[in-house]
Automatic annotation (TrEMBL):
The lineage of its organism: Bacteria, Bacillati, Actinomycetota, Actinomycetes, Mycobacteriales. SUPFAM superfamilies: ClpP/crotonase. Transmembrane segments: none annotated. Pfam families: ECH_1. CDD domains: crotonase-like. This is Enoyl-CoA hydratase. Belongs to the enoyl-CoA hydratase/isomerase family. It comes from Nocardia yunnanensis.
Length: 264
């Protein structure tokens, strides 16, 4: 195995023809910060240009996939001059790198995939969940909107009604429901999840690279033709909301473990 990248937020290891990316912030359920998003996107783009890499696998360390953006880093961002626009650009670039990668991407999801974690999971071409896993777009609960293309990725597979339900109500979608709505490729017991992922890795790693690339590109045209426009709209909307009193109240309520009281 060849260690491609090791940071505070993730590792990327080349294992034969596979690049295995693991989010490594288990104490915060693999919440992801600005530096990790920017670096991870660069790692995926580099892997996409490497003919020796034929498939990418993304997962999370421990019992969760990714619980979204790491809000605890807000003060650090301010001190460093990292703006909301920069954070959203990094998030969009990371997810777009997965969607546009010319090689197949597999997501192995256990536990929670929330916020930008949903976008990472559904940006993959094949998304496999454990039976205890769930998807959650909880942005509305703290006065925000989905970003990273999450709403578009849900709508592309499950339809506008499901995307609206997840985005507007901010409730968990259990793994089995996600499968019923065709959001993911499969749900498996823990004992079978890894075997399913590895079987897909083995097949794709030795598949016809150019045929896989053109197939993936065509599927993206069919289902995600407006993805760039969605990312731009999300970025503009989220930047506005991040400066709003409702977001400040939402975060205060979350940290205080109370119900948010938004403006009338």
């Amino acid at each position: 195995m060849n260690d491609i990248a090791t940071t505070a937020g993730y590792t990327a290891i080349q294992d034969g023809r596979a690049l295995r990316i693991t989010l490594t912030n288990p104490k915060r359920k693999n919440a992801i910060d600005y530096d990790t998003m920017a670096a991870l996107g660069a790692t995926v783009r580099a892997a996409s240009a490497d003919p020796a890499i034929r498939v990418i696998v993304v997962t999370g360390e421990g019992g969760d996939f990714c619980t979204g953006a790491d809000l605890s880093a807000a003060d650090e961002y301010t001190a460093r001059g990292v703006t909301n626009e920069m954070i959203l650009a990094a998030a969009n670039g990371m997810v777009q790198s997965l969607v546009e990668a010319p090689i197949p991407v597999i997501a192995r999801v256990k536990g929670s995939a929330a916020g930008i974690g949903v976008a990472i999971a559904l940006a993959a071409d094949l998304t496999y969940l454990s039976e205890d896993a769930y998807l959650l777009l909880a942005f509305i609960n703290i006065g925000l909107m989905p970003d990273g293309g999450a709403a578009a990725l849900v709508a592309a597979a499950g339809g506008r009604a499901l995307a609206a339900e997840m985005a507007l109500l901010g409730q968990r979608l259990p793994a089995r429901k996600a499968l019923e709505h065709h959001l993911i490729a499969g749900v498996h017991p823990d004992a079978e999840l890894d075997a399913t992922v590895e079987a897909a890795v083995a097949k794709l790693a030795h598949g016809p690279r150019r045929a896989l690339e053109l197939t993936k590109r065509t599927l993206a045209v069919a289902a995600l033709a407006s993805f760039g426009a969605v990312l731009a709209a999300e970025r503009a909307g989220q930047c506005e909301l991040l400066d709003s009193p409702d977001f400040a109240e939402g975060v205060a309520a979350m940290l205080g473990k109370r119900k948010a009281v938004f403006a009338e």
